[in-house]
Each structure stands twice: as structure tokens, then as C-alpha cells.
Amino acid sequence: MGHSASRTTVTLLIFIFLLISEFSFTIAIRKDIGFKFIPFCNNTVQGRFLLSDNNGYVCNALSVDSKSRCCPQTGKKFSCHGCNLLSQCCNSYEYCVSCCLNPAMTKKEHVLKMKIAKPSTARTYESVFDYCAGRCRHSSESVVHENAYLSDFHHCFSLPSNSSVANSTLTEARLNGINVVAGRQGESCNSVCKSRGQSCVPNKLVVLNHCDIIQKYMSCKGGCLASVGTDQPAEVVYDAPKYMNPESCLYTETQSILSCDGSHQHTRRLCPCILLHWMGGIEVATLVLMVWKEETRAKHRP
């Protein structure tokens, strides 16, 4: 009798143990029900018709998810539609951002170190999307005057040419079709290019206005110095007065004064020249207008 009671007790304990185990397991696998994770995307808001999200997808503004703000993950991720991969410039802001987000195009470790503005107090980019969305909005090297562009491909995501991590290959791409010519003493770039049957491209002066570029074309034996003047980038001739730092190369920190018309009796200019057959009809007309404005501005200079 006692033996039978003992067996009954053991059986009951086993049953209770199994019941508790089953109940605990059920609780464990059901406790997260009702808390569905909804991803959230950053996206561009510049365009009226298209959006690009931080996942690298481009979509119609009407098809973006109203809750997550993400584009449908259909179509091509990191699309470079309408982009020139050599110059890294696109004819569409949204596709510029999408292409820029491709890890093969933009290195995260590079852009997160970059400051958004020149002052030392400026913040750095928080993410690759932050960089791409900001960088693609405009490119100072694509602007001719105020709101005019030299090309439809004016949404560029390449690293700025004054960045320590900028690739020299990208800089050369910006000079595609440009003949970089070192002029004679006292010559303006308009004169240098014209003597070769070419035209000076004013907005490419900003590309040349960096020591690493100037040193590729000039000796710069006296170093590379910041200066002020419309004749930069340039090299001071060897027989110039000592106070002018003979054989030094000069660049300006005030890029707005760069001009094809500038010259100085003691410097040799570094000039961006172009043959007109390299350019399309609209670009030629834009360049002619740009040169005319340069000449008009020069005539009214004190």
C-alpha cells in the first residue's frame, strides 16, 4: 500500500513538472507577439517626383511607405541611372544619392572623418547618407555663374578636391577634355589658351587651385603658398623680387576672385584650356556667355 502511494506521488510530481515546463516554454515563445518591428528610413525630400532612401533605393514619391518612409525594395539597389561613373556626376539628384550610397563608390571611413564646412568647429557627417544627400545637392565645380551650370551632370558626389582623402584619379576625371597649360610670364589664361586656338574654362580654375595639382605641372621649388590675386594658380618666376618668394607656387583661398583674365608681371599662370569640339552646343553657348561676362567684369575693374 505504501509502495503504491509512493509510486502515485512520483507520477504526480513528474506530471506537474512536465506541465510547468510546457507552460514556461509556451510563455517564452509567445511573449513577443504583438510587437512587430517596423524599420524607419531617412530619405531625400528635394524632388517633387522621386525619393531616394538610405538603403539605396529610388522610388516614386507616391509609392514610399507612409510609416517607415522607405522605398519599396524593388528595382536596382544603388542605381547609377543617369550618372557618369568617371566624374561621379549625375543628371538627377535622387540617383546621385543612390549611386553615392554604394560602398564601392563611397568609403564610409573617409566621409565620416570629413567636416561639413571649413571652420574647425564644424561638425562631421553622421552617416554616409548624410554625406551623399548633402554632397549631391550641388557642386561648386559645376557652377558657371550664380545659377547656371556647365553641364546637366551637376549633381556630384565625389570627395571635394581639397580633401586629404580625395583620389587624384577623380581630380583628373574633373579635368577630362581640359588641357592644363603653364603659360608664359605675365600672360593671362585667356591669352594662354587663345594662343593655342582654345578657350579658358573659368570654373575649372577652382580644380587647379590646390598645391598637389599645381605641383604636378610646375616645379614649385620655393614651396606652395596661399596668396591673394586674380592670377592664381600660378608660379612666381625665378628672377622676381625676393619679397615675392621666387619659384614659389601660389593658390588663393578666395576662390570667388579666380579669373581667366588675371595676370601678373612676375608670375606664370596654370590654365585650364579646352577645344570647343569637346563640348556640346549648349555647353559652348554657356562657355561663350561665361567668357563674355568675364571680359565685361574685367573692363569694369578698377
TrEMBL record:
This is SREBP regulating gene protein. It is found in: Golgi apparatus membrane. Keywords: Glycoprotein, Golgi apparatus, Membrane, Signal, Transmembrane, Transmembrane helix. Transmembrane segments: none annotated. It comes from the Eukaryota. Belongs to the SPRING family. GO terms for biological process: positive regulation of SREBP signaling pathway. It is a single-pass membrane protein. One of its GO terms (cellular component) is Golgi membrane. It comes from Medicago truncatula (Barrel medic). Its main location: Golgi. Residues 1-28 form the signal peptide.
